[in-house]
Amino acid sequence: MKNTKDKIDEAKRASGADSCVECGRCVAACPMAEMYAIFSIEMSPRGIIKKTLMGDPVVEDKNIWYCTECNAGTDTCPQGVSCRDLIRKLREAAVDENLLENAKTCKCCGRAFVAIPVEDFVFARLKDEPPNVFGVLDICPPCRREVYLLRNA
Amino acid sequence: MIPFQPFYNMKIGVVDLSTSSAEVIPLVQERVSRYLGGAAMNSAILEGYQDDALAFGTGPLTGSFAPASPLMIATFTSSIFKRLCHVPLMLRTGPDMKFSGVDFLVVKGTAPEPSVVHVNHGVIRILLAPTILNMPVPEAIMELKKTSPPFQSLIITGPAADRGSSYASISIGTNGSLDKAGLATLMAAKSLKGIMLGGTDGLPFNKDNPAQGKELEKIISGDKNFKRRGFYAVLKNLEGGKDAGKYLKADRKKDMACYHCPSPCMTHVRYSWHDPRNQEMEKSEEGLLLLDHTGCIALAKKVGKNILPILWACLHYGLDPAGVAEMLPEGGAMTECINAIDKIISDGPPRTTDVSEANRLCGGGVPPIGTDDLWEKRVALAMVLGVCPIFLLRFPEITDTALLSFISTREEDLKTLQERLSSAISSL
Amino acid sequence: MMKQETTQKPMAEQDFSLNIEDLRPRPQEKKHLSEYFMPRRHSFIIFHPDRCTGCGACEMICSTRNVEKVAPVSASVKVMRDGKEGKNFSILCQHCRKPLCLPACPTRAIEKGDDGIVRIDKLFCTECGLCTMACPAAAPIKDPGSQEIHKCDLCEGDPLCVKHCPENALTLTRGKAVRWIKGLRWTSQLMSFLLLVMVFVGTFCYFRTGSVSFACPTGTLQNIASSGTIVLVSVSSALALLILTVVAGRLFCGWVCPFGFVLDLVDKITPRKLGWPAFLKSRMTKYGVLAGAVGGSYALGFQVFCTVCPIGTLCRSYGVQSFFKSAELAIVPALASLEIGERRSWCRYFCPVGAVLGLTALLRLIKIVIGAKRCKKFSCIQCAEVCPVGIIDADKLREGLSPKIPMTECIMCMRCIDRCPYDAAKIRFRWQKAVPGEGRI
Predict the structure, then answer these.
(1) Looking at the DSSP assignment, which residues form a beta bridge with residue B267?
(2) What's the number of domains chain A is made of?
(3) Per the domain annotation, does C263 fall within a domain?
(4) CA of A144 vs chain C CAs: smallest distance (Å)
(5) CATH number for the domain running over B11-204+359-427
(6) Chains sharing 3 or more CB pairs under 8 A with chain B
(7) Which of residues 108-127 of A touch C (CB under 8 A)?
(8) Contact indicator for B177, B266 with CB cutoff of 8 Å
(9) Considering CB atoms only, which of B7, B200, B260 is closest to C145?
(10) ipTM of model
(11) Residue A48 and residue A20 share a domain
(12) CA distance B315 to B168
């Protein structure tokens, strides 16, 4: 079992975070700005990368759980840094350390499939829908397809 | 050399279980021109390897828009037939292999520990799987789903093979297969528990193919055999099939088809049965896919109305129903049959099957539909081109020219392809 | 020279940020007048699970459109197969009436076009996958290789999967005309109103003696109770309406009743319903009113209810008005005002004519069924919303169970059948067991 520092180092290597020049293009492309009223530099891709590079405690930070993993930041990065891969690895490290309060697990298969701030965003957008719709959001998309199959076939 | 481009990745995967290494080598165009693919190519590839190597291959039409194109062919030296044998594997195995980046897969050597081979994106990995040894097939699959990288198709051996029984048969997922030639026994001897195909890539295709496929479907929809679909209908036309069909009573039936097949020959049945060994338990509902016509006929002759639970047991333990039928007592009661199966798994005698030339072509799995001389031709055609042999037997109006035109529609190509096809078939 | 007044704040304090409203404003949902006469009929694809054999041809051909290769995982349709139950289902976007993916997309890349097709604009899509998260069927599919989101766009109106399915398990529903029954029904209601109220004045009731008429069954009952005699002619004409009810349920209530027409008109101008307290909402009350009417007629010797019946009042209202007659007319708006509570409150809880027809409807020949398997219960439930007597159990539909429609309450307005875009609500004979969507498997 690698310890957290090794995992973070590997995350930096895999995502190429060391090449970040702080241009901020990822922040401009990031959909989080539209999703969260509290969007701040702390949760932006640039902010997470900076924090990781500075060696600050980032695995325990709630801010790594706002990302939707859409990869828009990676697409626009001139240095080819993959903010998504970094966030993924950081989240995996957090899950390994049992810091699960920000990850939603699927009721059917038990896998963590969405970050809770992301899910809250979806809930907020769907607030006018009848309540049973939210029951469906408790299970991950692959399991949801299985449920749909068994109910409707 | 013909510059046509059949539906291939042009890659061969070579796995050496003894050294736990795998590599992907390119498939040379010249070879494709000469052997076309399928069983003929498998044999050609295996010439370079020792007798215990086994090859999984696809045909030039596998996975394409040709009707019923699910075929993967396993070629190996059968311990039952004592010579080179080809076994057709249907459902989605062939296309999923192509969509995992390789067209042919050669496995040689013996693994030091029970392993599984995983193929995806043109990368082959050998993974250790000691936990699924001796596990019944459904549970082994659940275990693999949890611990391995994701996969679309899976070929797996059951506990019968692990115990060395020569009645073992591989299972495609939980559905069984037409393996009556001992593929599972060979795989188990190599400690190869299964092959997982990731199947997440794709292949460029000939733009005329979808329309050609629809044309062929229109042609066969005029055939009277088209309406006779599903397992039971195909079964009725076989010798002994009517009686077998009587015993296969099920609560609910649903016809299932393989990859891109317009006329299903398999049926999923749901039935309930009472396990006589466990008096307190309620009737349990089970579901299984009927796909082995010859196996069911053989079983029905021996066990009559107990056939469905016995079939389920065969799937569960990875056994060949036809082979099991040889060992069961005539008209046996359920308990006797179950005991017999337990005995087969634990210390079954080696199997002696009646070897005939025709069976070598398909391992004895393809039912005898149609006349004898036509049978050999059609099955050979199917095994080379990579389309389902049962489909070609049921619909003789699909000519080889029609199938070859999926590769190329040019006159000069077709002529050369015809020649190659004939030589490929005769080399089988 | 005028000094240019600068009322702007210094640069550093100005708010230059644009938000999504400025960049991609959403058009307001407006209902055009034409919607009422020629409602839009949007196509979408229906899947028939009983026909599907799991061959995967739909995935193959769809992927050729998405990625120019045969790659079933990159299709916009996913074939789900269950080995144990032997079931197949192709999941693809249903182009819902109110798509859930639309509000969930953070960049507003999803729009429902005028042709009804829900599209993802790849220019704005960041492949975040929140649309898949919000969709109850998880219909947008993430390509495992390129990470793109593939979602069905009906191939811009000519879907390939429909053409290539060898079993015809996928069908494009262009054929079902939605909202055509409404035109017929309003016409019928209008004509009945004109005929019964203005032309054949008073012929509906049995409050006018002497003339041959349709006899209202309730009026006939009260007449028999009050006078103790049975006039064969009136009973046989009352039978006409009863026979209609035996065949077609309470069709009278939905298509003929002039007071029902008035109530429907009032409905249109009172869209906000306040609801009734629970103790008032018993469907049995109308049978009580019926019993009271008949009993009262017997006791008092005249047709008690007919004096205050709103239907009767309407039918007898045309012509020379006296003071009392005008005062009598006040019954109609008074009872129509019940509409502010619930739609057709009068019909649900109080009408004795409805009660008699309801009892007769116990012998009905036909019924309305709603096939939950065909119904796209997550985002539709239009039938339950539009039913004027509120007898469709939306919760049961959401569970996936077909609700039992009580035909003694149903006024056969057929709004549910009219509205259902998925052909799940249908009329069946009472002995038919099969429900839409649950065919032979």
Answers:
(1) B255, B290
(2) 2
(3) yes
(4) 6
(5) 3.60.9.10
(6) C
(7) 114, 118-119, 121-122, 125-126
(8) no
(9) B200
(10) 0.90
(11) yes
(12) 10
